[in-house]
Request: fold
Amino acid sequence: MGLLLPQFGIFAQGTGAHYFLELDVRWDVTPAELLDSFRRLRAPEVSAGGINLVIAFGSDLWRSLPGSRFPESLANFREIMGVDGPSAPATQHDVWLWISGSSPDVAWEHARAATELVRDVANVASEQAGFSYRGSRDITGFIDGTANPPTLEAADVALVPPGEPGEGGSFVLVQRWVHDLRAFSQLPVEEQERVIGRTKGESVELSDDLKPPSAHIARVTIEVEGAELEIVRRSVPFGSVEEHGLYFVGFSADPSRFARMLSRMFGTSGDGIRDRLTDFSRPVSGAFYFAPSQNALRELAGSE
Ligand code: HEM
Reply:
């Protein structure tokens, strides 16, 4: 095997237009037919012309593919029943595609081409276009990504280390969150800042005496033996004037980090504190996927 290469789209920067697809593979399709069909995604109309394509598989499908060396910890997303109200639904599908590029027409065109190429084996279960908002802000107006690991460390955070099952691949958490922007924007800015735990303008972390334990960043900052659990977030704003929010995308070398963060957000982690953000935004979808290394994808697809 040559050099271990991740799917580069996971880390690609500077793309303002996004298209997310979830697909379900038809039950009567054999693994050979499936691989034949997905091999077509390497065609230039899908993955050339300044477009990034990331492909990831759900646990059931990945385990059914002959020769896939899957990490045991890959599992389907399970519903989380939060304390006093908010919950996180599970809407697991088989395949997740993330297409990103410089403009919406190109992203849409490539997303459509991808679905046409695999239409004989898989149906579209969900689709969502997304956009960059005012640089890298969430539509609440807060900068999203401040505490993301810097580029050079991102691979260590997101990728399964060499030698382990699934090496060079990445676990993905995908959740479509719908905001109640009207309610959030009625809060005074200082209160909004206490919801997030950072200032709105410059994304400066609030001091410990100003940051409530229910602040978003207080919930998702988890220390284990002196080291912070880290993930790489690539979330994207989406929506119309009536329904809008954040298409949350997280990558990690280890899926248990997502589970721990979510359980602290939904108040099921022991201290019973729920993330204040869940008063203003609710997930309407939730799934776990695995984005294999390029080497693993090539092996699956055969040399051809
Ligand atoms: C409505 C959905 C969400 C919104 C609007 C949101 C927004 C934000 C914002 C504004 C920040 C602060 C700036 C930054 O460091 O990026 C942040 C930080 C963070 N978020 Fe979220 N987030 C959402 C959901 C989630 C979920 C579902 C997770 C994990 C499962 C998560 C994990 C994190 C982490 C790890 C940080 C960095 C914490 C730190 O080290 O300071 N977020 N988020």
About this structure: The chain has ten helices and 14 strands.
